Amino acid sequence: MTTDFQATKDKFHLPAGMIYLDGNSLGPLPKAAAARVNQTVANEWGDMLITSWNKAGWMAQPTALADRVGALIGAEPGHTVLGDTLSIKVYQALAAAIDLTPMRKVILSDTGNFPTDLYMAEGLIKSLDRGHQLKTVAPDDIIDALDDTVGVLMLTQVDYRTGRMHDMQALTKAAHAKGIITIWDLAHSAGAIPVNLQGCNADFAIGCTYKYLNGGPGAPAFIYVAPKHINSTQPALSGWLGHAAPFAFDMTYAPGTGIERMRVGTPPVLQMAALDAAMDVWDAVDMQDVRDQCFAFSEILISEITTRCPDLQLASPRDGALRGSQVSFSHPEGYAIVQALIAQGVVGDFRAPNIIRFGITPLYLTQSDITRAADILCDIMANRTWDQPQFKVKSAVT
Amino acid sequence: MTTDFQATKDKFHLPAGMIYLDGNSLGPLPKAAAARVNQTVANEWGDMLITSWNKAGWMAQPTALADRVGALIGAEPGHTVLGDTLSIKVYQALAAAIDLTPMRKVILSDTGNFPTDLYMAEGLIKSLDRGHQLKTVAPDDIIDALDDTVGVLMLTQVDYRTGRMHDMQALTKAAHAKGIITIWDLAHSAGAIPVNLQGCNADFAIGCTYKYLNGGPGAPAFIYVAPKHINSTQPALSGWLGHAAPFAFDMTYAPGTGIERMRVGTPPVLQMAALDAAMDVWDAVDMQDVRDQCFAFSEILISEITTRCPDLQLASPRDGALRGSQVSFSHPEGYAIVQALIAQGVVGDFRAPNIIRFGITPLYLTQSDITRAADILCDIMANRTWDQPQFKVKSAVT
Questions:
Q1: What domains can you pick out in chain B, each with its CATH number?
Q2: What ipTM goes with this model?
Q3: pTM to 2 decimals?
Q4: Active site residue A114
Q5: φ, ψ for residue A88 (rounded to 5)?
Q6: Which residue of A has its CA nearest to B252?
């Protein structure tokens, strides 16, 4: 192991006493981010104003910073760009993929995909009005559903509820054998597990940067387009910053060079600053070390809970090779259990209808955090601490 | 006049000695924004983490803060929402407007529109592939081009190059008389001039918040949908945060209530914090006062320059009633002239091919700023100071 996890832990701010197992929803604050954002606000915006588009690198950041994300997911340099939200990136990728397989009308996904991916596909299909169909099958039935009616296979690699992980390489290969284009949503992969887009011969990938990459609330999304496709990709969302010459202000659109064409509008400069600080943490991190440490921690958590808390059902695969970087349990009172945990400083989250999720993030968690979280959870279950009215009041965002 | 412009000026940070005439590109830093953003980073993200979605109001902010923008443009409360970029909002508005007039195939715009509006329309038309046509006419020819082939009239109210302002009320009325839906891009209107969407019976409006509203680089865009249309609007970009129940994680999309459906993905929380601080400045501002002061300042600038600098041609309408909040001049060496001005602390900007732009923003400019800027510009013209090699090197972003 080459990664110094004590050193990475020291780079994050976490409230005293909190065990934060929700990095799969929102990564914690890298200590350097506050100063970096303040510098962007006070010096770049405040003092340098519009000159910062060039002098502070604001205009180049969506590609420059994207390459640092790309390095963690095995992307070729110059083939990833940051911007917008993951929903928008789904739309861009799917519109481009459909264009590459115009005669095939089925977009295949699975029931474990994150809903916004399916919703965006629905919206695009409706707009296109060319007889496309979004077909969702169970995760295990994907291989059998790959046939010559399918144009695009659109999957989230790691299931947001259960952490179940698809074999990206095998599925991409099987899809390609049938002439199908693939889109991989890496929302729960980037910064969580080793990903090798080049090695998988991936076509399109998308993801967000506020979960395992710790880019902050509302951090920009990313999109990757393989070199073999980028020059034939005609952006559906043809915004001015994806134009070949944005500042020529031509009246008609011409796509920019390479991945630049997947830019749309003005980048979120303050969010980029926070993400930039967050990416610094990754410079000294080996993704395989993260994976190994996550595996070890997850085994401890699963072992403790399955042994000591019989009422909690493991919702994640038992085999660590089939899991991403989260461990989930199911319980009919999952919501209240999560609230009771939070009240004792253990922050996980709940996903309807009955899933208790824990992100296992070695960058800022220790083994003693994991065993302590297990103890607290077992205590809550044994004493039915969750069975109190204050833990059952649902918030707008759960 | 009820607005205390000295008080508003005190609320902005501007570098010592700088006369900032580029608020039409990027508004300067409201002093309160740095602390506000830092609070969001350190306290909300750092200490409160995911609970901030509820407790710090992150989830509600795209509508709550949008209503503060809406109040400046005469929108009904609850009919504006923030998010994404202006390009994305153009796409959303146009897709919705096309749906309302399915049998009419012409989208009418003008040659003064900002290119990204036209580019996004191009992309949408190509995706739809239903025979729509983007027709652009000269600004003065719009009325004559309104016929029953036109489904949507999509215009930017104030021309980004010249400041020429359309009569929103008259054009909307003329469009409606022909059964045409209107989309108004308020990028150079919101915070610049009084706008009354309700009074104009507007259908859709969009805009950005980093120019006259001073929301910071990459601040979110906004979209307004009139009450008469919102419930029949089916979002083309049907993201999960526009869903009726985002946290139910249903497999199929159902549009949210009212304007909520025009949300797409996770809001840019740090950008929202900066914009929130910027909007505080507007609480004590009367838009008509801004308009009056802008008119007075613009008259001084135009009078000085046209009298003393015969080489500079006024590119804006001479009649202040026909201008927005900027004054532009044309010159073949406009780029070099702007660089020479910036070197002397007067920040305007250049727009291809030959436009020198000055944003006239009374919130932080004084009459003496305007006369001093005029003196410096006239001096540069008289001495041909601009005719030096260092002023002719073009940056990536101009």
A1: 5-30+286-391 (3.90.1150.10), 59-282 (3.40.640.10)
A2: 0.97
A3: 0.97
A4: yes
A5: -65, -40
A6: A119
